[in-house]
Design goal:
It is built from 4 helices and no strands. By secondary structure, the chain is an all-alpha fold.
Length: 72
């Protein structure tokens, strides 16, 4: 998915948007933001959730930070 499609099809609650604003302070690139949203969507799909929730985004951020630690 491209960035425009991610923003179009991933519906986010205000609490999720607030968490993403907080994550933005980690100074990740726009590409990293898109990857976090994609991964959040995949996690939500695996749980058969209708929307991406705070827990999904938090889990995706954890995986992203783990990835940064291991691979630089």
């Amino acid at each position: 998915m491209q960035s425009r499609q991610i923003r179009q099809y991933c519906t986010l609650d205000e609490s999720v948007k607030d968490l993403l604003r907080a994550v933005a302070q980690l100074r990740l690139s726009a590409r990293a933001d898109d990857r976090i949203l994609k991964l959040s969507g995949a996690i939500a799909d695996l749980e058969a959730a209708e929307k991406i929730g705070v827990a999904h985004v938090a889990e995706a951020v954890q995986y992203r930070s783990l990835d940064r630690k291991l691979w630089g």
